[in-house]
Description:
alpha/beta, Metallo-beta-lactamase, Chain A, 8-stranded mixed β-sheet, binds zinc ion
Amino acid sequence: xxxxxxxxxxxxxxxxxxxxxxxxxxxxxxxxxxxxxxxxxxxxxxxxxxxxxxxxxxxxxxxxxxxxxxxxxxxxxxxxxxxxxxxxxxxxxxxxxxxxxxxxxxxxxxxxxxxxxxxxxxxxxxxxxxxxxxxxxxxxxxxxxxxxxxxxxxxxxxxxxxxxxxxxxxxxxxxxxxxxxxxxxxxxxxxxxxxxxxxxxxxxxxxxxxxxxxxxxxxxxxxxxxxxxxxxxxxxxxxxxxxxxxxxxxxxxxxxxxxxxxxxxxxxxxxxxxxxxxxxxxxxxxxxxxxxxxxxxxxxxxxxxxxxxxxxxxxxxxxxxxxx
Length: 324
Ligand SMILES: [Zn+2]
């Protein structure tokens, strides 16, 4: 996601009036505790494009798939409308693309021309309970995403409901440095939220930032001070069967994460942001930094995922897992 940083904040806030009302609501401590201990499938988890669902819990905010020894948990941080008309964001999409996208992700089509989307993170839990977290959502009230995204997000509560302590997190992979992906990486006072984690970012992503970018000041400076910033170059093995895969275009150093413990799960980040780009991977998103590179990345990722029958784990579709 790349919200328009040049739109005056008050305009974006106006466009998002009502986003809080559409955000997912909190839940009781009893419900949280019940969920942590018991991941029964919810009676009605809603439409799911992956019939091999392992578990859906916590009112759909936590969805679990297994890849061999790993559990991959989709964690819903927030949900709301995007501040812009969907056809303005994907001007090259034709009627056929939109019709197919509507079948793939009907919940993305809000009233009028609105685009409804989830803001999701993923946790890769290995035997013993240590976790690699991929992306950290929109963050709390007052985070940099506040100007346009439905803050506050709920990631800390959702992690607790999933039985994940902050100190269980051994790595935080940021797919890229947009504010709806690094929101909970640090608190607004600059304290890393996951004190025992290394924060894994592509060096090219860091290098492309200007000194006054909010990512530089809000997230990178505190991580550097704490000695937790871990820059990588290109394709990098994170764990056995878990690999950071460069996926540039949306941003210069954007990366995805491939979990291959048997069934492949590709955590895409923003290599695709809307089902219309699943319907037709050639459709650009207006705010991609380099649309040509982004298209090549998306086509390659989706072709490979399809050939391997991988599940896609996306940040912004309204289903956490879909088949390529
Ligand atoms: Zn995004």
